[in-house]
């Protein structure tokens, strides 16, 4: 495992310390790791929802040249954002 140093304003540092003191987490690192895992899961869920919306839409067509040097996700997001 590697380490990453972060700076927090005093109120956020106190909040993290309170969460650890309450017994919810053993260390500040456990708390931060949990937040990162939650963020990753929320991001994955949003991406999945966007892809399912795109698949449900019968109006989306993607030509192979649209994918040149671009990800499928970015092309779908662009197409879904259009009115």
On the 0 to 100 scale, the average pLDDT is 89
| Overall radius of gyration | 20 Å
Describe the global form.
Answer: elongated
Number of domains: 1
Give unreliable regions as ranges. Answer: none
Helix share, percent: 55-70%
* Structural class by sheet pairing and helices: mainly alpha
Distance between the termini: 46 Å
Encode the helix/strand succession as letters: HHH
By DSSP (H or I, 4+ residues per run), the number of helices equals: 3
Largest sheet: none
User: Which band does the percent of strand residues land in?
Assistant: under 5%
Strands, total number: 0
Question: What would you say this structure looks like, in words?
Answer:
This protein is 61% helix and 0% strand. It contains three helices and no strands. It is mainly α. The protein has one domain.
Q: Summarize this, please?
A:
The chain has one domain (10-81). 61% of the residues lie in helices and 0% in strands.
């Amino acid at each position: 495992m590697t380490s990453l140093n972060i700076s927090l304003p005093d109120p956020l540092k106190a909040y993290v310390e309170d969460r650890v003191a309450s017994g919810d987490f053993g260390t500040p690192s456990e708390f931060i790791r949990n937040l990162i895992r939650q963020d990753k899961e929320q991001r994955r869920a949003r991406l999945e929802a966007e892809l399912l919306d795109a698949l449900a839409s019968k109006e989306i067509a993607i030509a192979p040249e649209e994918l040149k040097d671009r990800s499928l996700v970015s092309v779908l997001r662009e197409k879904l954002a259009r009115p």
